UniProtKB/TrEMBL annotation:
Membrane is among the record's keywords: yes
First-listed, main subcellular location of the protein, grouped into a coarse class: membrane
Protein name: Peptide transporter
Membrane topology: Multi-pass membrane protein
GO cellular component terms given for this protein: membrane
InterPro entries linked to this entry: MFS_trans_sf, POT_fam
Origin superkingdom: Eukaryota
Amino acid sequence: MLLDLLHNIIFFRCLDKAAVVSDTELNTGDYSNAWRLCTVTQVEELKILIRMFPIWATGIVFSAVYAQMSTMFVEQGMVMDTAIGSFKIPAASLSTFDTISVIVWVPVYDKILVPIARRFTGKERGFSELQRMGIGLFLSMLCMSSAAIVEIRRLQLARELGLVDEAVAVPLSIFWQIPQYFILGAAEIFTFIGQLEFFYDQSPDAMRSLCSALSLLTTALGNYLSSFILTVVTSITTQGGKPGWIPNNLNGGHLDYFFWLLAVLSFCNLVIYIFCAKMYKSKKAS
């Protein structure tokens, strides 16, 4: 509460000056320059956007985790056993289980979780938007941990069978990836939909469409962040001629370390999110 009070006094009070008529306007009688004089409504809307920004920023790390579904999860699946009899399953096709997870979780959330949560919280929606996003961020951490555990087992089999130096698939069924896709689908339901509801409900009335689009911007920035993390990891881990965590031959690498790194980042992101959510001051009903 003290930090929130100081924040409002020191920072937001500075913004209030934008709506104060100065001597220049009084002398000239010109109040039309929007760069020199703002309305109280404009100042209040800016305050709302600033309060929303930390919550928005935490969605970028989640989107970086979500981007692994079409990148590192596929790379991991390509060096696993994709055979069902004589049929080979394309590694990228397992993203279907993310879609199935979403289809399953939507009715489960609406028909089971919301009524249960409503009894405890007394809220019509069961969970607030902030609580819903927090659950999604927690699930993203579990998703990365699940992927790391599968990779640890895959690398263990590669060592036991002497396949470390061979760029071949390890006899571990690709269906062991299903839990990480399924958890990611659940995280998607909680986080992305929670974001849309949050930005729509909390944004200034005249900026709802723009603020709703901000939630989609996190997806693009999350992909950039994922690429940046991958570049940094590759650069650091390949120094001194080492193969690095993610070499061409994943059997000789440590993709599990990369997944653990994202799990740690997700945990740190969750801690920051909880702090920001506790500090967040909801918009007054219009």
